């Protein structure tokens, strides 16, 4: 095969390409067209694009036919099977592609495919593809994070509108986005999972107020969103009234595998290895022993992740509750790796901003602080362990011993 593979017409079904052809074409495109300023580096191993950079990146992919690999082709996506989606992800990570949090593509669109009306699909899907609209997820609330069914944001119907009042929190990138898909309470039932509805809300509507939250890494991408008598057209209801819990659960699938990717942990470990070398600690047996243990853990996890992906690609089995294991392991491994780097750097580990050691430019504080919430977001690890215990290990509540 030649070094540069020329892509066939964009209208062609890329599932018809061989895996090698697909990989070579995608790798070649990334090398030629993906800007250096959007690539992850040792100093910014977890770089995430936001705002206009995110829009520009998604539009670049769209203009060149590389947008929405998992979407069906009839909706404007690439329509890739799982194996080619996996290759797509591998090459993106190999090229140092920045993290992109774009719930419109990954969460809302699949929901509309299954539960939206034809009018909703026609209105929103093209705008998501072009990034005319940037969506965020409005689920968590104060007192209703891991226990999402306890949410209290309320929507009351008045004629052809819902009147929404309440608050969402930890709404990633809300300050730079235009819309939110939100779970709101529309009814009261014995089970708290009932009476919840799925609404599409324009963040520019009167009564919406957004307040960024500055985290320990000095970033303000997390936000609080307040709704004060916000009028939302009834046509923006997705699925049936009071059945939003069913709609929200439909989002589970391959996304849980991508969330468990070992790429971030591998980049953090590469930084740790460079740090050990730059500080002249390659002969320190205590340091080398800790580093070797992390290398072994990462190697084992990469093997597990590959096994899970191969299972989906070969057998077509959608990831079930066992995917919680991936999220738990990789988030905690990432924290252990960045903790090792901070410990190894000794007095330099407390420095914020750029750190230059033996010609190597690093920032240890930023990755450390960005790794901390990994065990909380996307379902905190304690809840994930409960899921594994109940649904995979089939462990019931412990029985108290009978008294004599």
The structure class reads alpha+beta
Termini, distance in Å? Answer: 78 Å
Please state the average pLDDT score.
89
Could you list the spans in which at least 5 consecutive residues all have pLDDT below 50? Answer: 1-10, 398-404
Number of strands: 12
- Name the helix and strand elements from N-terminus to C-terminus, one letter apiece: HEHHEHHEEEEEEEEHHHHHEEHH
The CATH class of the largest domain turns out to be Mainly Alpha
Strand order of the largest sheet: 3-6-7-10
Main β sheet profile? 4 strands, mixed
Q: Summary?
A:
The chain is 41% helix and 15% strand. The protein has 404 residues and is an alpha+beta fold.
Structural features, described:
The structure is a single chain. Helix content is 41%, strand content 15%. With 404 residues, it is α+β, with helices and mostly antiparallel strands. The protein has helices at residues 19-33, 51-63, 82-94, 103-115, 118-129, 244-249, 255-259, 263-278, 285-315, 324-344, 365-371, 381-392; strands spanning 48-49, 99-100, 135-138, 154-158, 161-168, 179-185, 196-202, 208-213, 222-233, 237-238, 355-357, 360-362. It has a four-stranded mixed sheet. A four-stranded antiparallel sheet has the order 4-5-9-8, with no helix packed on it. Strands 1-2 form a two-stranded parallel sheet. The chain contains twelve helices and twelve strands. Strand 8 and strand 9 (222-233) form a beta hairpin. The protein folds into three domains: 14-100, Acyl-CoA dehydrogenase/oxidase, N-terminal domain (Butyryl-Coa Dehydrogenase, subunit A, domain 1), CATH 1.10.540.10; 134-247, Butyryl-CoA Dehydrogenase, subunit A, domain 2 (Beta Barrel); 255-392, Up-down Bundle (Butyryl-CoA Dehydrogenase, subunit A, domain 3). The longest helix is centred in the C-terminal third of the chain and has 31 residues, at 285-315.
